[in-house]
Amino acid sequence: MFRLWVVYLQFAELFVSSMVHLLYGFYIFSTAVAGDLSQALNDYFYKPNMNVEVKEEMSQGNSNVDDLPPIVLVHGIFGFGKGRLGSLSYFAGAEKKDERVLVPDLGSLTSIYDRARELFYYLKGGQVDYGEEHSKACGHSQFGRIYETGHYPEWDENHPIHFVGHSAGAQVVRVLQQMLADKAFKGYEHTSENWVLSITSLSGAFNGTTRTYFDGMQPEDGRSLKPISLLQLCRIGVIIYDWLDIPLLKNYYNFGFDHYNMSWRKMGIWGLVDCLLGNAGPFASGDWILPDLTIQGSIKLNYHLQTFPNTYYFSYATKRTRKIMGITVPSSILGIHPLLFIRVLQMSLWRHPSDVSPPYKGYRDEDWQDNDGALNTISMTHPRLPIEHPSRFVEEDSDCQPLEPGIWYYKLVEGDHILFIVNRKRAGVEFDVIYDSIFERCRKHVFRKQPQMVPNEAHH
Ligand SMILES: *[C@@H]1O[C@H](CO)[C@@H](O)[C@H](O)[C@H]1NC(C)=O
Ligand SMILES: CC(=O)N[C@H]1CO[C@H](CO)[C@@H](O)[C@@H]1O
């Protein structure tokens, strides 16, 4: 009888969380469509003689702007770059705060590794090369999308870039920096870690998150999926979406698995069956984002990642929990997005299953209870696993000036995981406080003590 109740509760939880996520997804999608429609109507009735896009391009002809290193905003899980979801902005318009900001689209569920590869070619230009070994191991094409012109082709050690990553995006940038240091791009023998001037992490996923286990990852291996879970539903939905391959929809929103050839045109009905049965595709080979966000997956990734001495690092760790009489609870009811509320509560009560060996030596449940509904706060401050990187806690921005490279400065911010993205109104003034300080830091406080290089020629 008791077991029946447990099963019943599990299904009820699954039903509620899938409805909440579906509704939110639908809400975002329809907001984007509505925004686009009203824009189109506006254009139709008022017929502006020049659209905003063109004006932006023209203002970049200005040589001062050309000399600024770009600030690249890197989205997280389920995220999207400029051009997807119509005029909706993942960073809620923060990209307009500076004259030279890039917002790449790296696929919303692709692995951290694949995103880092994509990001390199987005900036440098050319056809994405995922690397022979990795592509073979994961069963996808070695070559992907072609960027006719890079968004910053002059990128090199003398023309380094600022990166700002949200959630998994922060880890993507770390992986990219390591690839640059390891000279992992064929045909580019001179890459180095110094191509990255600074990394700012907003709710960055450095040490993994216990949320992955609530969503359906097995805590035993951090890689396989529970048979009945939110992620199973998501997996089936994604496979079908990619198989149907409706161009209009895929242009609008893309999970980023085009290198897996999952379209019906390419793999036919048996390919679909194969993917659904778990014999092929990204979910079979584990080359998607969720395994990278488990604690085990992060340890594996972090094992190869360094914090480099000439790069500036800054991180904002978010938190929506507090302790009452020794028990961690959500710190608000209305202040937490409905999409995240159940997870904030569940994560604050997280217990690692006692019959499964802990993910690392010295693991304690209580370290992982503070969270923002998607990530544990402890995971967001700085890379800690498998070894702890240099870090410094910051209360006031002025505490850490002048900034030194090679140290992760971190701040704690009261907010849930999506406070600083998609919907600007939710964060209120805090939205401006955070992004203004990020952009100001990049522009005014972060520079290399090196002979100033010759201004690059205009590249038009
Ligand atoms: C995907 O299709 C392209 C051609 O359309 C092919 O070159 C590539 O090898 C295919 N990749 C896989 C993994 O089947
Ligand atoms: C959350 C957290 O910090 N966990 C661990 C991250 O990695 C280091 C190194 O093993 C641990 O000391 C942390 O406790």
Query: Given the C-alpha coordinates, what overall shape results?
Result: globular
CATH class of the largest domain: Alpha Beta
The number of helical elements comes to: 17
Q: Which ligands, by name, code or SMILES, are bound? A: 2-acetamido-2-deoxy-beta-D-glucopyranose
Roughly what fraction of the amino acids lie in strands? 5-15%
Number of domains: 2
- What helical percentage do the residues reach? 40-55%
Number of strands: 11
Going by CATH, the homologous superfamily of the largest domain would be Alpha/Beta hydrolase fold, catalytic domain
> What separation lies between the terminal Cα atoms?
72 Å
Radius of gyration: 22 Å
Structural class based on helices, strands and sheet pairing: alpha/beta
The major β-sheet equals: 7 strands, parallel
Provide the spatial order of strands within the biggest beta sheet. Answer: 2-1-5-6-7-11-10
Mean pLDDT: 85
CATH T-level topology of the largest domain? Rossmann fold
**Would you list the SSEs in sequence order as H and E?**
HHHEEHEHEEHEHHHHHHHEEEHHEEHH
Oligomer: single chain
Low-confidence stretches: 50-62, 451-455
